[in-house]
Design brief:
By secondary structure, chain A is of the alpha/beta class. Chain A is 31% helix and 23% strand. Chain A has 12 helices and 12 strands. In chain B, 77% of the residues lie in helices and 0% in strands. Classes of the chains: A alpha/beta (334), B mainly alpha (316).
Chain lengths: 334, 316
């Protein structure tokens, strides 16, 4: 499936560094991965691990000042790194679109939602007013907005969070993009709505033959919806592989810690949730060693002084960055 | 929205009522007997008593108020003791000058402040923003009377564009070129003061708005920078601008006298100063009443515009 010609997105050695008062801040460092057509990849990590910056850098949506991007992002053959704003603008909406994290802030509060989707259809696709409205209502219907013709006239403030996120998705779909970047698409929503939105994205991906980059801190979200997972910590990939391998054969202690800290239905009621001690490192004060070392129970002296590079695991396409990896299942004797 | 407008109109009526009481009472704050002022110090007590009765001053004050209010509602603000002219017609002659001056100055101020604020906000602390910022701060610290002197020096004298006095002032309808020539200096002076406020308010709001997530989202749709600025950033950033404009325009109506006095433009401010100098109390009362109602009306109109611009306000 993922042989070269099928790859929609090739990210190679991508780094994003912000220039701050405290010095350079490496928000994303040396990230590489590929995404095939009609595939969903999950990017997982806790807050501050660089996942949002990564997804924006892939799109070329990073701020225009005080930021340096190196490496390469090939999106359907188009180089996004260093591309002019005009060149990127030509791809935005049509080749790649983004579903933003918080539908409370990602819609313009003083513009009717119809107008906001209309903008994509008329300005970007050159539709006339009448066709654009018909198409907008069609898209609203596609994303499951009830009485779409009435909602078309609503201001964002008159819609619920779930409805707003559906509007955001409809806007993202307006230009029929090949790649949909979903940046924590359910974080701002009620738990009951989260599953609906995720299922909708899944369904749309199949129907519209898109590829999806699903960014989340919640491993439960990516478990059944992605074919592969990239685990990020402090701006770097610490483990990547097929979803099955990352869940069942993970080698990096951070991945284990993330899995352990997700609540499980099988746990008895009132089970205290396992947490990862400590906090993500200050990216301005990174040490030469593994950035997870200060919080890692397996850390040795080497971990604090030398950074482990990604190395291949036993399974194909499975890689991890750790000096003291967890034992494989065979080593564990199971 | 409709409920909001009705509430505001009721408030407006209340405020105008309070203003009318205040304006009416103004004349009663005068020291001494008004008949002495009218007839002069040498008047006989019998004549004074006659005039007192003629003016209705022997009747209770609330009755006097309602008679006065009835007249005001019919557009009758009384007749000046000094010039023997109707106060209403004096105001009717002066008011259009104020309105024209404010109108031109606001067009100039908005036409410069909006594009400059947008240019500044695009790259905060960039070189253009710094130049604009320093320039606007300089203008902010120069008082209007200095601005006027400089404008007279550079525009009127060096360029030879005449600025007229009270006696040579012509209305827009009779000779619009001459009218605009005499309006140029006062309008530019007022525009400078307004521009500084509008530029600074809009710039800082635009900078804040441009950091909002919905701007990034608009960018991700692939629409142009210009469109993002005008369609997405400008409207939500203009609430404070409109609020400032309401207060500012009201201030120009009430406080245009410095400019009018220095440049001898016969608007309301100039007329007011002259009336005060001549002890023309009824004219002062009329102008105070008209200007106060005008300020309230302007603020009402701007509140209304703000509600259309940002529908979140009346919903809350």
């Amino acid at each position: 499936m993922s042989n070269a010609p099928h790859e929609l997105l090739v990210v190679d050695d991508l780094s994003t560094t912000f220039t701050t008062m405290g010095g350079p801040l490496p928000a994303v460092a040396n990230v590489s991965f590929t995404l095939a057509r009609n595939e969903t990849i999950g990017i997982v990590g806790e807050s501050g691990s660089g996942k949002t910056v990564l997804s924006r850098t892939i799109m070329g949506l990073q701020p225009r000042s005080n930021v340096t991007v190196t490496g390469s992002v090939l999106l359907n053959g188009n180089q996004m790194v260093g591309a002019s704003e005009a060149a990127k603008r030509a791809l935005w909406g049509k080749e790649v679109a983004m579903v933003f994290q918080d539908p409370m802030t990602s819609l313009n509060p003083v513009m009717r939602v119809g107008k906001q989707i209309d903008e994509s259809l008329r300005v970007r696709l050159g539709m006339n007013k009448h066709d654009a409205k018909a198409r907008a209502i069609e898209l609203f219907e596609l994303v499951g907005i009830p009485s779409p013709a009435q909602r078309y006239m609503a201001y964002p403030g008159q819609l619920s969070g779930g409805m707003r996120q559906r509007v955001v998705i409809a806007i993202a779909l307006a230009g029929s993009p090949n790649l949909l970047m979903a940046d924590e698409p359910t974080t701002g929503l009620d738990v009951t709505i989260q599953a609906q939105i995720l299922n909708l994205l899944d369904d749309l991906k199949e129907r519209l033959e898109m590829s999806v980059v699903l960014v989340t801190h919640d491993l439960g979200v990516v478990a059944t919806r992605t074919s592969r997972i990239v685990v990020m910590y402090a701006g770097r990939i610490v483990e990547s592989g097929s979803t099955r391998d990352v869940f069942n054969h993970h080698r990096m202690p951070y991945t284990r810690a993330l899995l352990d800290s997700s609540p499980k239905v099988s746990n008895a009621s009132h089970t205290r949730l396992v947490t990862i001690p400590g906090r993500p490192p200050n990216l301005l004060k990174l040490t030469a060693g593994c950035s997870f070392a200060p919080r890692c129970t397996f850390a040795t002296d080497k971990c604090h002084t030398e950074r482990p590079e990604l190395q291949a695991a036993d399974e194909p396409e499975h890689a991890f960055a750790c000096w003291n990896p967890l034992p494989t299942n065979t080593e564990r004797g199971s | 929205m409709i409920r909001y407008v009705i509430r505001r109109i009721l408030m407006l009526i209340g405020i105008v009522f309070i203003i009318s009481v205040g304006s009416f009472y103004l004349i009663h704050l005068l020291p001494g007997n008004i008949t002495t002022i009218i007839e002069g110090p040498g008047a006989s007590p019998a004549n004074q008593a006659k005039l007192y009765k003629l003016l209705g001053l022997d009747r209770p004050i609330y009755e006097q108020y309602f008679v006065w209010l009835g007249n005001v509602l019919h557009g009758n603000l009384g007749t000046s003791f000094i010039s023997q002219e109707s106060v209403a017609s004096t105001i009717r002659a002066a008011l259009p000058i104020d309105l024209e001056m404010i109108f031109i100055s606001q067009i100039l101020a908005f036409a410069t402040a909006i594009p400059m604020a947008m240019r500044s906000a695009r790259k905060p602390d960039g070189i253009v923003d710094r130049i604009f910022g320093a320039g606007s701060f300089t203008l902010l610290s120069v008082p209007p009377f200095i601005v006027i002197i400089l404008l007279v020096l550079f525009i009127s004298i060096k360029l030879g564009i005449p600025h007229t006095g009270v006696s040579t002032y012509v209305s827009f309808s009779s000779d619009w070129i001459a009218n605009l020539e005499s309006m140029a200096l006062p309008s530019i002076t007022l525009a400078i003061g307004s521009f500084v406020v509008y530029f600074r308010v809009l710039r800082s709001d635009l900078i804040a708005t441009l950091q909002e997530e919905f701007i990034t989202m608009a960018r991700s749709k692939g629409i142009s920078q210009r469109r993002i600025m005008w369609r997405h950033a400008f409207r939500p950033s203009s609430v404070a601008l409109l609020g400032a404009a309401g207060v500012n325009i009201g201030g120009l109506l009430a406080g245009g006298f410095v400019v009018q006095f220095l440049l001898a433009i016969p608007g309301l401010g100039y007329t007011l100063i002259a009336a005060i100098n001549q002890n023309d109390y009824l004219l002062v009362q009329g102008i105070v009443f008209v200007v106060s109602v005008g300020v309230v009306l302007i603020n009402f109109i701007f509140d209304f515009i703000i509600n259309i611009v940002d529908p979140r306000i009346s919903r809350e």
